Amino acid sequence: MNITVKIIGGAKVPAGLKLDRDGSVSVSVEDGATVADVLLQLGLAETLVTMVDSRPVPRLDRADHPLVDGDEITIFPPLKGG
Amino acid sequence: MGWHGRILRVDLTNGVAKGEPMNMEWAQKYMGQRGLASKYLYEEIDPKVDPLDPGNKLIIATGPLTGTMASTGGRWSVVTKGALTGAIACSNSGGQFGGELKMAGWDMIILEGKSPKPVYLMIEDQECHILDAEGFIWGDGVWDTEDKIKARHQDPLIRCAGIGVAGEKLNRYACVVNDRDRAAGRSGVGAVMGSKLVKSIAVRGTGGVKVRDFGVFMERVKAARAKLDPSEGRAGMAASGTMPMMDITNAHGSLPTRNCRQVQFEGKNNINAAAMKRTRLSDSSAQLIRNKACFACTIGCARVSHIDPTHFSVQGEGVEKYKTVTGGLEYESAFALGPMVGVDDIEAAHFANAICNDHSMDPISLGGTISAAMELFELGVMTLEDTDGVDLRFGSAEALVAASKAAAYCEGRLGEFMAMGSKRLCEHFGRPEFSMTVKGQEFAAYDPRAMQGMGLGYATSNRGACHLRADPYGDDFEYVRPEGKAQIVKDTQDFISALDSTGLCAFSAGAFGVEDYAGQVDGACEGNWTIEKFIETGERIWNLERDFNNRAGFTAADDTLPVRVLTEPAEVGAGKGFTTMLDQMLPEYYTVRGWTPNGELGNALKARLNL
């Protein structure tokens, strides 16, 4: 299945991963893949924050959060202050 | 050491400046900067005094690590009773001024009384002269003031901290600006300076700062830097400053938009980090030129920018100087002068930010005040007569620019209203519910419906709504629920209180651990600064500030949020369907603080903290 991964907020992007101007990339993953699987597949740090379809998926829940075709994962670093 | 043990006390009423020894017993309990200055304020003023009365005092304070080689050791604070809030105010700045003051041999300056005429201070090492400002710099902006002082005293290395016209005219959220574009920004500390008729503090220091054990100190400085220098956070801050946060809060649904009517801004791509770097057609240049660093900083998060010279805001008389290269937008100013007022014109936001720097206004409170006025205007509560004919609608860059200028000069009916701050403005028009404030201070750039911990942090902050008094960010981005927030907010409030008393910058906390802060303070200062002592000092400072506010008349009823975020759920994002669940978090917070149900400190707590 295909999902969209959107990496924003200055998160370090793995070498070779080419993003669109808005930070998104379409990714093919195994059926039943979880949020944790996607981070692993793309080589993204576990410390990043993940949201699926605008809802946060906490780090502890990622392995239990299966994705469905067409999902959008937003990924950003846990910045603070401003 | 670390400290000089010297305070410069300036009796403005009688025109006398004298050095005196610092209370080193208090230094062991309150460290420096925020903590130690708060202790002096607590002991020396009536907490019920009007903030603009000569009985209020204004304390300029460095920390023991200010002016040392510790990375980010350029911080200093202004502590007073805030003109915006009536609560204890501690406003923190960077730049070069703090290091220079320390090099001059002073830990703190206490301004007391009121000068009979406008003055500025010229401090050259141990000498301090109180000099006439009238006919010289009174009425000028901060930028011209700094240039004139350097020219008169023939020294380009003088560092200045002072006020522009907004401070002179007692705009309630006037701040103290140093080094042209660094600011002790919040709570109206610049209005207090203006009330004392002090225009600027100019300082030139040629000494140094001694530390307790140079070998130990440098070992710990290097160990801390070894964490900071290679960190991803440091690299990101150097590249884009704090601006990437706008993309994050927009995606998360915690970007306050149009006076918190919404939590996402459809125009954010025109006013975010990428927009600052986008090449303009008009001058083939981007707004952002480069980054810069404060004294001793190895992060360099500050933005150096310039406006589009063809933008409407810099055409005509009196605005030519705003075409210059100057401090640029950061996330907080960009949010307040962008999404909060519904404006996606990054050049207009830059202009408003520049006039904030030149005339000493807090851009967060300026944006929050304009956004409240825009809501009142769109509802027909404020009229064109009230706005001097300005069509004060959300999204209007022209209205943003006009309101910013009116606020800076406190000119006309609009200027009078803008200078009030949103709380007084909304109360004046009988609609207090439209003021997005806590204790009179405007929200920062995080909506507390998606970020519940931030809501608790706003509600309980001793200086009014603030994003830098607690650190619930990580948990808030992952969990929209009330459970556990109280402990996180309490613990981080204590930690930050201590950090703000060191002389180091909060942005170092992305890499430094508590052991690095305590270790560096211990290397510089006597007193065996363990991690436990460091944290307990933070807790003591927080409770001292709270006790000041209680004595000033604040109660548990002031630990609240605007009715909008308590009753109107967010429509999108992580907080969709949620209001801020303060009623569930606040009692737990009082419990973990060890306060009474009324939010007061009990005797047992005071005894434990040796208050």
Can you put this structure into words, describing what you see?
The complex is a heterodimer of chains A (82) and B (611). Chain A contains one helix and five strands; from the N terminus they run ββαβββ. Chain A is mainly beta. Chain A has one domain: Beta-grasp domain (Ubiquitin-like (UB roll), Roll). Chain A is globular and about 40 Å long. In chain A, 34% of the residues are buried. The mean pLDDT of chain A is 95. Chain B has three domains: 6-204, Aldehyde Ferredoxin Oxidoreductase,  A, domain 1, CATH 3.60.9; 257-435, Aldehyde Ferredoxin Oxidoreductase Protein, subunit A, domain 2, CATH 1.10.569; 447-608, Aldehyde Ferredoxin Oxidoreductase Protein, subunit A, domain 3 (Orthogonal Bundle), CATH 1.10.599. Chain B contains 24 helices and 17 strands. Chain B is an alpha+beta fold and 611 residues long. Chain B is globular and about 60 Å long. In chain B, strand 1 and strand 2 form a beta hairpin. Classes of the chains: A mainly beta (82), B alpha+beta (611). Chains A and B meet through strand 4 of A and helix 8, helix 9, helix 11 and helix 18 of B.
Q: Architecture of chain A, according to CATH? A: Roll
**CATH topology category name of chain A:** Ubiquitin-like (UB roll)
Q: Number of DSSP helices of chain B?
A: 24
Terminal Cα separation of chain B, in Å? 24 Å
The interface involving the most residues is between:
A-B, 21 and 38 residues
Number of domains of chain A: 1
What is the terminal separation of chain A in angstroms? 38 Å
What's the arrangement of strands in the largest beta sheet of chain B?
2-1-6-3-4-5
Question: Considering DSSP H and I runs of 4 or more, what fraction of the residues of chain B is helical?
Answer: 25-40%
Q: Specify the biggest β-sheet of chain B.
A: 6 strands, mixed
The overall average pLDDT of chain B, rounded, is 98
Instruction: Round the Cα radius of gyration of chain B to an integer and report it.
Output: 22 Å
Architecture of the largest domain in chain B in CATH?
4-Layer Sandwich
Protein structure class of chain B: alpha+beta
Q: Number of helical segments of chain A?
A: 1
Helix content of chain A: under 10%
Q: Can you identify the CATH class of chain A?
A: Alpha Beta
One letter per element, helices H and strands E, the order of chain A comes to EEHEEE
